[in-house]
């Protein structure tokens, strides 16, 4: 008899329409309102017709089987309650036509940062701005064959793309033709139309079209974020007493907006009264499992609208809990809880669990501390070897001078001195790394040079700079205080030179301080003296190979300090009159004979 009933239920189950089994009907639009327009589902708080939407901001018009958001008059392509976005068709901006992007001020919408800004043009800089302040932009050049381009691959040739700022509500687009030596080409570029648009990055990266196709496009898909203000909650129904938070997880934000989702075990629309429901298919499966797992026949099954709400799993599944706990039903689930009268049990259980957890945490923390120390020691040893510690020792041993005036710093000391290498501490950036300003515990101000990347090929440059600077003691050469090799990237510690680079005073002059002719001659003489010392008076001749104004620092008395010895070269044989090296340095500052002959 039991098997016959099961067979009967299975036949009914298999005879249901596939779409009913796959997707139970849950309330998504407001009752008695149009639920779709064309192939787009209209989900509340959006709606078509009077009293079908939350407020005027979410009113939708259905024109020729296409939905349009009234407040901004854009076609709706998709409404999502999961991530609070709406996809709309947004206009393509054309430099040949007078058009402006949509303005979202005073609406609950803003442009999602999942969009990107794309410009289809060449020899052009397209930019976005707000109130005459630039927001973002991208530059594209021309290819040699006349402008063929594949969308989704816009990286600077005939088209370009860039990310947009967050919380963007309005912007203005401008096109700027790049300088071109060929006036004829420039006039030709001015005659061509240029295009710019925001577009959903996920869709843009999958399409394939040419620049000619863009010229025939008037709009593209754009994602908008939307939100509901907390004051609008009770306005969605005539039932003022409805509590939205009874079946939803709601999160309020600083701007007063609220995002709601159905709790686990429920589906539907969290912005409708009773919109979050347990799906009917789950209940049906639970009944089948109950019959299969039960030794007694239980067939009380009424499949109507009331079964789509929360059910009592404790009764349906005959749940048994360990005494003294009892089964209690919750929304969408169940659990074993102590009876409300058992306060002693709760206190004892809480104290026991607390003590047990405390001992467990202390033991885990003690073990973790030991393992962390061992791991940190091995990590520092690994970095010391990788950053050339052994090579540095070998290099220093090969010189008689050694690094008597320098010392090894530990990573914790330099991390604290630079406030964890804060970007506000950056003094400058060069070819080999970034320089940070720091202060040691004894009050000394230092400059810490941190390599950009861990590159085995540049390891020799770093070691070279340490070895060279450790031998130099000259008032016009920056002094090396020490180095740190136990970090992921090698660090050099110099004396702090407060007045920046000579390049700054030459190219960014201001009326408050001007370099007089006497000061210029003195600085030039000091640099020449430092080079003379390096070439002739040092224990081994040292050739800097990259002397330029950005590598000359000025101290508090505006005395010159030669810096950045990463590309320097030492000559061990003092009788050597000629040396051939790989050409290094900055083009424009190189000796012509050295550049030609190496």
Give an overview in words.
Helix 9 packs parallel to helix 11. By secondary structure, the protein is an alpha+beta fold. The strands form ten sheets. The chain has a seven-stranded mixed beta sheet, with no helix packed on it. Strands 24-28-29-27-26-25 form a six-stranded mixed beta sheet, with helices on both faces. The protein has four domains: 88 residues, no CATH class; 142 residues, no CATH class; 107 residues, Phosphorylase Kinase, domain 1, CATH 3.30.200; 96 residues, Transferase(Phosphotransferase), domain 1. A hairpin with a 4-residue loop joins strand 18 and strand 19. The chain is 27% helix and 25% strand. It contains 14 helices and 33 strands.
Q: How would you write the strand order of the largest sheet?
A: 3-4-5-6-7-16-9
Major sheet size, sense and barrel closure: 7 strands, mixed
Derived from helix and strand composition plus strand pairing, the structural class reads alpha+beta
Q: What's the total count of β strands?
A: 33
What's the gyration radius in Å? 36 Å
Can you tell me the number of structural domains? 4
Low-confidence stretches: 16-24, 235-246, 294-309
Instruction: Please count the helical segments.
Output: 14
Query: Mean pLDDT, rounded to whole units?
Result: 76
Note the gap between the termini: 100 Å
Q: Outline, from the CA principal axes?
A: flat
Protein name: Protein kinase domain-containing protein
Membrane topology: Single-pass type I membrane protein
Keywords: ATP-binding, Disulfide bond, Glycoprotein, Kinase, Membrane, Nucleotide-binding, Phosphoprotein, Serine/threonine-protein kinase, Signal, Transferase, Transmembrane, Transmembrane helix
Subcellular location: Membrane
